[in-house]
Amino acid sequence: MADVFGTALLDYEKGHYTEDIKTYSSLDEEDVIPIPYLFRRFDEMPIIEQKALQLARGKVLDIGAGAGSHALYLQKKGIEVTALDNSEGCIAVCKKRGVQSTILSDILDYSGEKYDTLLLLMNGIGLAGKLNNLSRFLQHLASLLQSNGQILLDSSDIIYMFEQDEDGGYWIPNDGTYYGEVAFTMEYKGKKSKPFDWIYVDFNTLQNACESNGFNCERVISGEHYDYLAKLTLKE
């Protein structure tokens, strides 16, 4: 499969930035991911990400590390952090930028170590793909967590993307799927990725999934646009 995301990040790192990543979704939306944004400094990050990085402690696994911006910030603070990504290009960029510990793997294929903090920023819970995969995903994360560890993740309630009627209700397709499930394709310099599933989880749905999988779930802060930062800890 073409490493569209990693190729774009590598181009930027090498000084060959000419265009952004285009995304196409099942919500009929065409959008772009501005590549420079993925290389941002701490002071350029949204408040939700800043808060998560301030709460990170102990041995940290940055899941879906991308260009390594979160890992680099923690590393500079003296925190032991490992950047994990399933993109060869992303891991190459992390190394070029100075991230000392990296792992090339899909999170569901990775096991062995245990961490004090698992970071899933920029809607990292989206890696679960679909709502019916969320339990398995959370159980796998639990297997990577120290008993007193924490998961810090952000996501969004994308209900705002659906039409609202006069009494405040939303027109959501009644096809049996959860409205936060989206299929994406990415394109960069004429190369397209295979479609992949991604999920945006509203806080109540996340709380319910946590409850049935042995986690406490706390909303740390809400962002400016239906987004939030959650902290998950294992129930004793």
UniProtKB/TrEMBL annotation:
Keywords: Methyltransferase, Transferase. It comes from the Bacteria. The keyword Transmembrane does not apply. Residues 60-149 form the Methyltransferase domain. It holds the Pfam family Methyltransf_25. The keyword Transcription does not apply. One of its GO terms (biological process) is methylation. One of its GO terms (molecular function) is methyltransferase activity. InterPro entries: Methyltransf_25, SAM-dependent_MTases_sf. This is Class I SAM-dependent methyltransferase.
